[in-house]
Amino acid sequence: MFLSCGMSKDRRIAVDLLAVLFGTGSWLGINSIYVQLPLLVGSAPESWNLPSYLVVVIQLGNIGPLLYTAVQRLKPFRDAYLIVFLLLLGSCAALTTAFVYDQTVEVFGAERSVPLMVTVFGLSLVGCTSSVLFMPYMGRFKDIYLITYLIGEGLSGFMPSIVALAQGVGGNAECILVGNGTDSPPQYTSYTPPPRFGTRTYFSIACGILAVSLVAFLLLDRLPVCRKEYAAITIGNGNSYTYQSKAPSKADDDHDDRNPGAPENTIPRISRRNYLSLLVLIGVLCLFGNGFFPSIQSYSCLPYGNVAYHLTVTLSSMANPAACFLAFFIHRNSVRTIVTLSVLAVPFAVYAITTAIMSPDPPLMHHTMGDILLIACWTILMGLVSYIRLAITTLLRYEGGQTLVWVGVATQLGSLVGSLLSFTLVNFTDTFQQYYPC
Prior knowledge:
Blueprint: H1 13-43, H2 50-60, H3 63-74, H4 79-100, E1 105-107, E2 110-112, H5 114-138, H6 144-167, E3 174-179, E4 187-191, H7 199-222, H8 224-227, E5 232-235, E6 241-243, H9 250-255, H10 272-301, H11 306-329, H12 335-357, H13 368-397, H14 401-428
Antiparallel strand pairs: 1-2, 3-4, 5-6
Helix pairs in contact: 1-5, 1-6, 1-7, 1-11, 2-5, 2-10, 2-14, 3-5, 4-5, 4-7, 5-14, 6-11, 10-11, 10-12, 10-13, 10-14, 11-13, 12-13
């Protein structure tokens, strides 16, 4: 790895700021749903199974990138128009969620959170399509701006987490005595203190942030100062563009002592085997990180209490932008580094899955050390997954604009497989058991 301060006289801070705000709108809606789950599972009729339902609904949003790819092949159009539509859709969906999150509809004789699932689907269209649209759009800029966009994408998890920390969950569930008749045993009910402010306020804030992201993109797409930062010679409709090649110069030779005669900024192309391996790896990471882990997190964390679940969700979301911020200072990555970090993530993943499988009696339950280990495990795990995904993305970016589309495809395909696997295990097997405090 070669460290870099991440700042350069060749970059414009205004473009960096707009790229960050633009990236914030990519997954903010979906991350807002995930971070709010500690409150949603307490009132939804699906209870602890709600995350598995929502993960599947989110993956249905993959119809967005599929339709986008098909239409672009038949009749390419300017991708900026679709980005504006998606960010506007996300703002409206977040605002609607604020008013329908607790509404239910009877389906096949059982109450279901259908209105919530519909709005989540709208938010998922933004997130899923952003993987094959937002990142490739940023590929037309100089490579220094891709990292700042990805920092914004990481902030799409950080900002909802900050709001959620301010909101709180009220505390752990308490058992309240509701009946103590002489002819019947004592009866208890679970009571959870209310948060500082409600879910309606929370999603209204999310709507406002998405609106800011929309304005930032309009400026990024239209301002002449931003267009001057393009790195492509030709930009057509869709995400088709070619990068300007840099001819070797004597100044480059003088700066590169390790490989005289090679330009300083030239990145050697990786082998086809490594190329395919990295695509498979990012798909596997998304299978677990986007599809499987969110569905089982309630079973892993809720036996330790609402506070532990709340802190795990919020800190895990914060780990994403922290990983992106770290990548801002690490100028280059290697395949060897990516593989090493992937192996390092395995024991944390095993512990997270173990606590979920052992529910309702996971290790060190009702012990402070158990809470600490759980929160630390999930936070480090999601941080590693986020950083590895970012490292793969930035490494493959140099293979050309269409490569970022394939990265998005691998991301969404892995997420889809993970969500279907977790939904089946959670809802149709006895692998995961719910914990009842009373």
